[in-house]
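ARCHIVE CARD
Drawer: 12
Card no.: 0347
Subject: one protein chain, sequence and derived structure
Cross-reference: see card 0346
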Amino acid sequence: MVEFMLPANSKITKGKTVSAPVGATRIKKFKVYRYDPDSDENPRWDIFEVDLDTCGPMVLDALIKIKNEMDSTLTFRRSCR
């Protein structure tokens, strides 16, 4: 099992929120934990609202949509589809 430690006295803060387009009917919120160990900043939760009618049915599809259309700094690993 993987374990990680946060810096002493760190608190998870609210990051940015990216809303779904106006008129979207099936919206799902994805909370992404962001932490840079090379930075002195606290970790944060970024929230992305994704219109499920414009992406595939898998979580991976939503992550790809977030990376391609909402936040190009998002990085993740994938090994299969």
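Annotation on reverse: Strands lie at 13-18, 27-34, 44-51. The two ends are 24 Å apart (CA to CA).
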